C-alpha cells in the first residue's frame, strides 16, 4: 500500500500560495498505516542512530534515515510526495537528504527563526524545498512551525544560531515586522517550505514526543560548493561537481 493517500492533490491555488508565501499546508498526505509505520520506524531509529548534535540539542536529528530503514525509505522516496514538490518548485528536483526530527516531551527548546539553505553546500541551486511530515498530531504546544510569509523572495542568505531568538532579526531587521503564520498539523499532514523561507518551531511542552520526518529536495542542477557538511564530507566530491550520486537520486526517476 502506498504511504501517500489518494487525497493528496495539489490545486492551482496551493501552488500559487506556495510561490507567494514560501510555504503551503497539504493535509492527509500519509494514510493511517503509513503514519503508523513511519512513526514506529522513527522511534526505533532514535534508539540506534546517532543524533546530529546541535549545542543544547533542541531536537533529535537523524540524517539520511532512509538509508537505515525500509519504512522510512518508502516515505523519503515516495513518488507522490516528490511529484507535489516538483509541481511547487516548477523544476526537476533531486533528494538532498531526509531527517527524522523528534522534540522530546517537556525538555526540548524552541528552534528559533532561520533559513535552511544557507547551511547547505550548494552552488547554482535555483530552488530548495522541504516536505515536513507530521507523524503525530502537532498542535502549537507540541512544536509546530511558524513561517514568515514571503521571506523567501528577499535577497538575504544568512545562517544563524538556531537557539538565539533574535539572531535572524539582528541579521535581517526587516523580517522582524513581517506577519507570522503558525501551522498546527494533524498526523499525516505536511507542510512544504522553501529553503529560504524564515521559519521557527515552538518547544514541545506536552507529555508526548513530537515526531516528524523531513524530506529535503534541491534543484537537480545544483552543484557541490565545497563547503563542509555532514552529508557530503565523507563522499569525496569535488567542488563544482554535480550531485550525481546514489545518495541524491532524482526521486521520480528512481
Give the beta-strand count: 12
Largest sheet: 6 strands, antiparallel
| Low-confidence runs | none
Helical content class: 10-25%
| CATH fold annotation | Jelly Rolls
Tell me the number of structural domains: 1
Mean pLDDT: 92
According to CATH, the homologous superfamily is: q2cbj1_9rhob like domain
Number of separate helices = 5
- Rounded to an integer in angstroms, the radius of gyration calculated over CA atoms is 17 Å
The quaternary state of the protein chains shown equals: single chain
Terminal Cα separation, in Å? 18 Å
Backbone shape = globular
Tell me the name of the CATH class.
Mainly Beta
Structure in words:
This protein is α+β, with helices and mostly antiparallel strands and 254 residues long. It has a single domain (12-237), classed as Sandwich (Jelly Rolls), CATH 2.60.120.620. Helices cover 20% and strands 23% of the residues. It is built from 5 helices and 12 strands. The chain has helices at residues 12-21, 32-48, 70-76, 79-89, 167-171, and strands spanning 23-26, 60-63, 93-103, 111-114, 122-123, 128-134, 145-147, 181-183, 190-194, 199-201, 210-219, 223-224. The strands form 3 sheets. It has a 6-stranded antiparallel beta sheet. The protein has a 4-stranded antiparallel beta sheet with strand order 4-10-7-8. Strands 5-12 form a two-stranded antiparallel sheet. It starts with 11 loop residues before the first helix and ends in a 30-residue tail after the last strand.
